[in-house]
TrEMBL record:
It holds the Pfam family TetR_N. This is TetR/AcrR family transcriptional regulator. PANTHER family: HTH-TYPE TRANSCRIPTIONAL REGULATOR RUTR, TRANSCRIPTIONAL REGULATORY PROTEIN. Residues 58-77 bind DNA. The lineage of its organism: Bacteria, Bacillati, Bacillota, Bacilli, Bacillales.
Length: 261
C-alpha cells in the first residue's frame, strides 16, 4: 500500500466534523458563484449564537445571514452537528498563557480553570452542546495539553494525570455554567438579591422549619444560605474556595504517594 493510500485509510473512521476540524475535508467542487469557506460559515454561526443564543441558530438562519441558500452551506459542512462541533472548536482557539517560571502547579491549575470559565462566560451557548466523546479536535486537544501541563513536574503516572485533568476540567465547566446562568439571569432583569435568595430571606425563615429541614435550618437562620450577613463570610468566593479544596486534595494525594515511596 502506498503511503498516501495508507494515510487516507487511517483517517477513514473519523466523523466528518472531526475530519473538517483537522483540515481533512475536501472543499466542494461545485458551489455558489461567490465562494464560501468553512471558517467564514463557522464565524457567522458563532456570531449569531453569541448574540441570540443557540436556539435561534439554524442552517436556514445562518445561510440567510451569509446571503446563500441552506444547500450551499451543506456543500461545506455536512450537518448541523458538524457545525456545532466546529463552533466549539473555533472558540477554543486560545493561545497558551505565558508560563511563569516561578508559578507552582497550584497556580497553573488556577490559571487553567480561569481560562476555561471565561470561554463559558464569553460564549454562553458553549455548554448547551452535549459532550459526546473525549476531545478529538485540534483546539480541544490543545486544552487537554494545557491542563496536562499543570501536572508536568508532578510524580504521577499518565492515568493519574488524566484523572486530575478530568477533575479540574469538570469543576471549571460546572463553575462556568453556574456563572453563565447567573449572568444571563442578571441580563434578563433579575436583581442580585433574587438570585442569591436574599430578597426572600424573611419568607424562608418562616417556611423552613427545624423539624422538616434539620440541617438547613440553622444554616438559614445564621444568614449563610442567602448571604444575609456578608461580613460574616469566612470562606470568601465560593468558587475559589471549592477550587482550593480540590487543590488541597491533590496535594494530599501527592504527599501520600511520596510517603509510600
Amino acid at each position: 500500500m502506498k503511503d498516501k493510500e495508507k494515510s487516507d485509510h487511517e483517517f477513514e473512521g473519523l466523523p466528518s466534523g472531526i475530519a473538517l476540524s483537522w483540515g481533512l475535508g475536501k472543499q466542494p467542487q461545485r458551489g455558489p458563484k461567490r465562494e464560501l469557506n468553512i471558517d467564514q460559515i463557522v464565524e457567522a454561526a458563532v456570531e449569531i449564537a453569541d448574540k441570540e443564543g443557540l436556539a435561534t441558530l439554524s442552517m436556514s438562519r445562518l445561510a440567510s445571514s451569509l446571503g446563500f441558500t441552506p444547500m450551499s452551506l451543506y456543500r461545506y459542512i455536512p450537518s448541523k452537528d458538524d457545525l456545532l462541533l466546529l463552533m466549539q472548536e473555533k472558540v477554543s482557539d486560545i493561545d497558551y498563557p505565558n508560563e511563569e517560571v516561578d508559578a507552582d502547579w497550584r497556580e497553573k491549575i488556577r490559571q487553567y480553570v480561569r481560562m476555561t470559565i471565561k470561554v463559558f462566560q464569553d460564549h454562553p451557548w458553549f455548554s448547551d452542546i452535549p459532550i459526546t466523546s473525549v476531545p478529538l479536535t485540534p483546539n480541544q486537544l490543545k486544552w487537554v495539553d494545557m491542563a496536562l501541563r499543570t501536572t508536568r513536574n508532578l510524580p504521577l503516572n499518565d492515568y493519574e494525570k488524566m484523572a486530575i485533568v478530568l477533575l479540574i476540567s469538570g469543576y471549571a465547566r460546572w463553575c462556568g455554567i453556574i456563572m453563565k446562568d447567573m449572568t444571563m439571569a442578571m441580563q434578563t432583569g433579575k436583581r442580585p438579591g433574587e438570585i442569591s435568595g436574599l430578597d426572600y430571606t424573611a419568607a424562608l425563615k418562616k417556611l423552613v422549619t427545624q423539624d422538616r429541614y434539620p440541617d438547613l435550618y440553622p444554616v438559614l437562620m445564621s444568614g449563610a444560605y442567602t448571604e444575609e450577613y456578608k461580613e460574616k463570610n469566612t470562606v470568601g468566593d465560593d468558587f475559589d474556595f471549592g477550587l482550593e479544596r480540590i487543590l488541597d486534595g491533590i496535594e494530599h494525594y501527592l504527599l501520600s504517594k511520596t510517603k509510600e515511596e
